[in-house]
Amino acid sequence: MATDPKTINHYNENADGYHRHVSDPNESTFHAYYEKPAIRAELPPLTGLDVISIGCGSGVDARWLADNGAKKVVGVDISTGLIEIAMRENPDLEFQVMDMEQLSFKDESFDLAYSSLAIHYVDDWTQPLKEAYRILKPRGSYVFSCGHPIDSAVEYRSENGYKYALLGRKVNQATRERTIYGDYLAADSDGVKPVKGILADMEITVYHRTFSKMLEQIQAAGFKIERMVEPQPTEGMKVADPQVFEQLSKIPCFMIWVLRKQ
Ligand SMILES: C[S@@+](CC[C@H](N)C(=O)[O-])C[C@H]1O[C@@H](n2cnc3c(N)ncnc32)[C@H](O)[C@@H]1O
To answer: For 5-152+205-260, which CATH superfamily applies?
Structure first.
């Protein structure tokens, strides 16, 4: 299994807490005022579409997709705990426990595949992208968000009460000695490396991936890339957290891909 089992345990054991977190915009500011507005802006008109929400969590996105016109919404997630909440909160929608690497739907079942902040938990995108491609109807879209590699390339350091996320270099002007911080290219592991502690020291692992590796795996699955968006935070973030607003205005944390089945 390509998602770290500890990540799955984390979501199972903290399912109620996660649901409360994503249901409250004051808590989940990165969702409410940054990622959700950005990914939703890239969706086609939903009216009449059959949609799958991949890595649907507790069903918040599936609810939004259904309330905004989708004809049918199916949510799938690897966490049993989150799927139980999704079913309880949305009895009119369909949810199934499922790994995005093996989607048990027939070929050409959906018009739109949607996935918010889930695919970066998988070490190799080849299989999940192939599966998304297979279950889409011809000309169907896959719109997904994931961590931005400039954010996951950093190295973390804790010093004197500060947590540093460092990417760059320090050069001694006299000796020319260089200290390098972070590792974007992850050359020792072919451009993909596990990152722990990116989310407030939780027991989860996301995978850093170079931009070229993303392109290679997306194109290998057969998708045409329509757009890649590096979003800006919304005005809501300026009110909720001005310092995070400034950070995200300068250094991206997430990116959105808009792909089309050819
Ligand atoms: C940050 S949460 C996002 C959930 C939801 N999209 C949202 O925005 O609230 C990431 C989700 O990805 C799910 N996930 C991780 N690996 C997965 C896999 N291989 N297949 C399906 N879901 C997976 C996790 O269980 C978790 O629910």
So the answer is: Vaccinia Virus protein VP39 (3.40.50.150)
